[in-house]
Design goal:
Order of helices and strands: EEEHEHEHEHEEEEHEH
Structural class: alpha/beta
CATH superfamily: HUPs
CATH topology: Rossmann fold
Mean pLDDT: 91
Distance between the termini: 56 Å
Number of helices: 6
Strand order of the largest sheet: 9-8-7-10-6-1-4-5-11
Shape: globular
Low-confidence stretches: none
CATH class: Alpha Beta
Radius of gyration: 21 Å
Number of strands: 11
Largest sheet: 9 strands, mixed
Length: about 260
């Protein structure tokens, strides 16, 4: 099975103190520590595990600048076979639809049975996977936390409301957005990183993947970020104490007082 996994280089929230810039429309990005998007890491691990069972190869792809190459090499050190860097000045400032358009070009340039994305990557909007599937006219499922490969199809589990699990059969080729917790991503050691340090990673621009430069980038974006702010800190949680019955009574009274119950 040939699997393409879409990954993204993002600020590592565990290593950075996020500060809003002076313009209020972005975060301060100077000196930030970057890593691969957490959800994407689970998608790569799942792709590797599928290939280990049924054969094939895993290719990781990202849209970005030269610095984004580091996340491709990190995922190749993890076990992905190939990497593709989609980079072009025309891609700068693309919204979710623009990114999906760029990725569509990369998909159509290859021959993939399965495309995986993280459940969230595009500034938390969780939209690129669904948009990509729609553009390709492929079946799509989101929040996937279980995959069983079959003959020409997959059995997938999805996390839905109320903590329930939904099982579906989906035909290949398809696009799946992967939820965290589907697996345990493997540790990437120095030896693995050194092994892929000199591997050539192709860089493809708009013309290489058949994408009209005027259809992507900031000028074509229909969604533009206009503001960034840190929510005001609330007063904190109120802890209810007492027996179970007393806590229930207090909670009911509290909800009535706040208009939650009548």
């Amino acid at each position: 099975m040939e699997i393409l996994v879409c990954v993204k280089r993002v600020p590592d929230t565990s290593e950075n103190e996020i500060v809003i810039n002076s313009g209020g429309n972005d975060i301060e990005r100077d000196d930030l520590v970057y890593s691969v998007n957490e959800w994407d890491n689970y998608a790569v691990e799942e792709a590797i595990q599928i290939v280990d069972k049924v054969g094939g190869s895993v290719t990781v792809v990202t849209v970005g600048d030269d610095e984004s190459e580091e996340v491709l090499r990190r995922e190749m050190a993890m076990g992905a076979n190939n990497g593709i860097l989609l980079t072009d000045d025309a891609f700068e400032g693309s919204d979710g639809k623009g990114i999906a358009t760029i990725l569509k070009g990369a998909v159509e340039k290859g021959n993939y049975d399965l495309i995986l994305t993280g459940a969230q990557a595009d500034a938390g909007a969780a939209q690129v996977g669904g948009m990509l599937a729609a553009m390709l006219d492929y079946p799509y499922a989101s929040l996937v936390n279980l995959i069983e490969a079959g003959d020409g199809k997959l059995m997938i589990g999805r996390e839905i409301e109320g903590g329930n699990q939904e099982m579906n059969e989906i035909e290949l080729p398809c696009v799946l957005s992967i939820q965290t917790g589907i697996n345990e991503p493997r540790y990437v050691g120095i030896r693995g990183i050194r092994k892929v340090a000199s591997v050539e990673i192709p860089e493809l621009g708009a013309a290489d993947i058949g994408v009209d430069a005027s259809a992507v980038g900031e000028a074509a974006a229909k969604v533009k970020r206009v503001d960034y702010f840190v929510p005001d800190t609330g007063e904190g949680a109120e802890m209810l104490t007492g027996s179970t019955e007393e806590i229930i009574d207090k909670l009911i009274e509290y909800l009535k007082a706040k208009g939650g119950l009548k």
